[in-house]
């Protein structure tokens, strides 16, 4: 508080002389000292924090043996006991086991079912890896996702071996009874993979509606295949732009020359130049879009740099500009489908219908180049989306903004034969009622599931003697109580 001509001098003198205030201040200091003593780091806590730091920052286990690090630890606490790399490794594995148990318990306690996604990668060393991710809504209605497994997957990547690997993951986490669906890309081995997993889960009656909702194709991957088909029409132009990006990014001096050309033209490079990844079409779109942004700069560079031989011609630039406008809606929908912070199931039907309407419109375009491209994409579209995902169509019916009327409207708009559109709408409505009945009558469903498991005991090679059966029965009773509560809430 300031002293001066502000009318606060009297209050200032009171603060200096107030005995009660000094007592409170002294109590606060004592409490702070006591708190510091209580928070004194123990050796156990120290090792746990070191393990967390190693994981978080990808440090080597030998980090704890660095002379400089040990000096820092000793300076902060002279009583610290230094550990070896083997001890730090054991601490990391101990922390991993603890976190894994926490995740397993969390997955068992969630009120609903779990949706899975899985994919394969090939590293730069040509080693295959598989990833399995769980997606669910927790008790607070928050969307959560957890990477359950990321491990080496040696070849061959056949459907049988993939299914055995993924099924072993489900057994490891104890979530076989909670699975709702799995999303995979559109490779043929994945079709076989999901078939084998579905057969195993259905043999124990663990899937809703006999697994009709189990397999969900990756919409973003389908979009990638559709647009890649269209990009073949402008393949030469795309190759030139790709080679242009490689040429510029291959040398710092070339990028400096590019910046000089931008200054001469009066353009500032606010966004970088993109080089695409051949397996992701939206990366190709970003590359083309960035090239279009600096079209005048690239043309100027082609005039000054005799070694720059991949600059597109005027006609090719015009063609790329038209194709960029055409592909922008596809890029927007791909980005929408690829979101991880929000639900995407209810966005599927609307996005797919927008794509089909766009293709139908562009097929009638006066621009023969665009219409030819749209026709090729429509063929690929019909191949993959003729058998649309029923569960994702049901999702938009449950969205109060759209409901069944919207589905009926869209089918009648894109389906030339009226009775076929009506049949599709009726099929979705029937499926939705059957899905509801699975929850409305959980007791009969559970009875059917148990009897089906006993009936298939010879097929499942001793499933009756499965050590998990007692736990499964307890889970059945818990699920019955939850479903009974859900049925009551839906009725009222």
From TrEMBL:
Gene Ontology terms for molecular function: DNA binding
Name under which the protein is recorded: hAT-like transposase RNase-H fold domain-containing protein
Domain of life, per lineage: Eukaryota
Chain ranges of the hAT-like transposase RNase-H fold domain: 338-439
Keyword tRNA processing: no
Residues passing through the membrane, by range: none
One Pfam family here: hAT-like_RNase-H
The entry's keywords: DNA-binding
């Amino acid at each position: 508080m300031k002293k001066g001509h502000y009318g606060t001098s009297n209050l200032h003198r009171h603060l200096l002389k107030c005995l009660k205030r000094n007592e409170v201040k002294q109590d606060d200091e004592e409490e702070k000292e006591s708190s510091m003593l209580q928070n004194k780091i123990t050796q156990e806590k120290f090792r746990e924090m070191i393990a967390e730091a190693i994981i978080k920052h990808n440090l080597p286990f030998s980090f704890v043996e660095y002379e400089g690090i040990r000096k820092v630890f000793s300076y902060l606490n002279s009583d610290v006991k230094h550990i070896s790399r083997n001890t730090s490794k054991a601490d990391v594995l101990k922390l991993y086991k603890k976190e894994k148990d926490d995740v397993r318990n969390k997955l068992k306690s969630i009120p609903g079912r779990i949706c899975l996604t899985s994919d394969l990668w090939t590293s730069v060393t040509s080693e295959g890896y598989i990833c399995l991710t769980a997606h669910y809504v927790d008790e607070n209605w928050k969307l959560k996702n957890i990477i359950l497994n990321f491990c080496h997957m040696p070849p061959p990547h056949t459907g049988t071996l993939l299914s055995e690997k993924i099924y072993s993951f489900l057994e490891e986490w104890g979530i076989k009874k909670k699975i709702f669906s799995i999303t995979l890309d559109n490779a043929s081995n994945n079709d076989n993979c999901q078939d084998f997993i579905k057969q195993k889960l259905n043999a124990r009656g663990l899937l809703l509606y006999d697994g009709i909702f189990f397999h969900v194709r990756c919409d973003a991957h389908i979009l990638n295949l559709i647009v890649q088909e269209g990009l073949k029409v402008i393949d030469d132009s795309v190759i030139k732009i790709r080679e242009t990006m490689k040429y510029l990014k291959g040398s710092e001096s070339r990028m400096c020359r590019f910046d000089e050309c931008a200054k001469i033209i009066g353009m500032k490079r606010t966004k970088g130049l993109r080089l695409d990844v051949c397996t992701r079409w939206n990366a190709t779109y970003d590359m083309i879009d960035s090239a279009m942004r600096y079209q005048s700069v690239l043309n100027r560079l082609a005039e000054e740099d005799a070694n720059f031989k991949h600059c597109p011609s005027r006609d090719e630039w015009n063609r790329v500009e038209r194709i960029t406008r055409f592909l922008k809606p596809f890029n927007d929908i791909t980005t929408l489908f690829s979101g991880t912070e929000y639900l995407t199931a209810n966005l599927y039907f609307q996005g797919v219908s927008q794509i089909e309407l766009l293709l139908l419109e562009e097929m009638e375009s006066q621009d023969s180049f665009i219409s030819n491209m749209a026709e090729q994409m429509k063929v690929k579209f019909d191949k993959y989306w003729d058998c649309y995902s029923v569960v994702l169509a049901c999702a938009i019916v449950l969205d109060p903004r759209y409901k069944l009327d919207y589905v009926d409207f869209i089918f009648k708009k894109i389906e030339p034969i009226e009775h076929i559109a009506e049949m599709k709408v009726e099929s979705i409505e029937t499926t939705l009622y059957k899905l509801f009945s699975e929850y409305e009558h959980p007791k009969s469903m559970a009875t059917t599931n148990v009897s089906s498991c006993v009936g298939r005991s010879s097929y499942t090679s001793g499933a009756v003697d499965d050590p998990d059966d007692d736990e499964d029965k307890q889970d059945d009773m818990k699920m019955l109580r939850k479903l009974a509560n859900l049925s009551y809430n839906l009725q009222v």
